[in-house]
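Researcher: Next sequence.
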Amino acid sequence: MSKPTITVAGGLYKLRWDDEKLECKVSRLIDKSDRTVGEVTWTTTRDGIAPHLYQCSFNFTGSRSRSDLAKLMAERYPPETTGADWDAIIEQLSVLVINAMREGEPVQELWTSTDAKPIQYLVDPIFPKDQPTIIFGSRGGGKSAMELLIAVSLSLPWTDNPLGFTVPDTATPGLILDWESEGYLMQRRLKRLHAGMEIGCDFPLQYRRCSGPVADDMDSLFQIIDAGGYKYVIIDSLGPACGGDLNAAGPAMRFFESLRRLHISVLIIAHQAKNGEGEKSVFGSGFFENLSRSVWELKSEQDQETGDLKLGLFQTKASESRRHAPMGFCMHFQDPEGPVTVEQDESALTEGAMADRMPASVLIKAQLSRGQKLTPTELTEAIGRNENTVKTALRRMHDKGVIMSTGDGRWCLRGRRENE
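Model: Next structure:
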């Protein structure tokens, strides 16, 4: 009789007996004071036999349950023709699953002498691999478009996208979990982006309509993610997916505890708190940001003349690196129901209200990149900062070789004077 192998992914346990050509999948496992129960599904890869053998609820610690299941399986998969010793198989199943569940994660030795694994990204620089990431913003501020663009970039993969995203050169399957909308509405947004971005090829995104807290739906999610081979999920949005009082620590901690069990990358779309001016935060408990590894604020501003939506993506937390520089985009609507185009546009960060979030050096560079040669006083008036701030920024930019003096009290980008 062969020795079974066991693999554990989240709350899903898989056992395989190679010689007997048997597999058992265990899910919905609950460890109570007097028994451990779960759902077992038996399948076979033996030729001439239908793959599905049996599915039932099973008490792993009950002697009667073990003997009853062994007897039933012997009738469905006879030992005399398959070599399956069902008393031994059920005993192995029970012991291995109970031990794996109670042992939890193994202890690791982390040596300073060995190379550490570098930080990896699904979408660089926005979405780190195997970590929870939050993108939050106001209602109607482009969050749905951003999540779809990230999913499309990974699904195709869209390596030559106009958004400044760096993605793997092979397709990365993912799943959108939606607590706010409906599938046909998400499809409508996708089709408008598909037409506006002129992607060309047809492709699907995997979508699931959800209700109730994600922590209460983990058994189903384990099986869906395992069957689909998904490498990431997008949660839209945090509030209904978490459930409970969002300002309390308990629901937030339960939410992240559940996500951690998935062992995949998670992108969470969230709403922002109404906390006045300046840097915003995720609505709810501070644990939402504390337990995320990367947090981005998506700000938006509509151009009153063109109707375009200017977007700014500002990283407010980076646990494993320096905060990335802000990213600017422009979303263009051809008509209320027509194609939607999104492209990288740094002017979104240097014009309008979002400019208040940018360093003086960025605003100065934007002014000088238009071919202008300006004095500190003229730059002070152009970017709306005080003159001391402007002079300090000019000095630092000069030291870094970004700008140069024209010799008459004005400044220009380095190389501009020689080229004109």
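Model: Residues 359-419 form a domain with the Arc Repressor Mutant, subunit A fold (CATH 1.10.10.10). Residues 272 and 280 are 7 Å apart (CA to CA).
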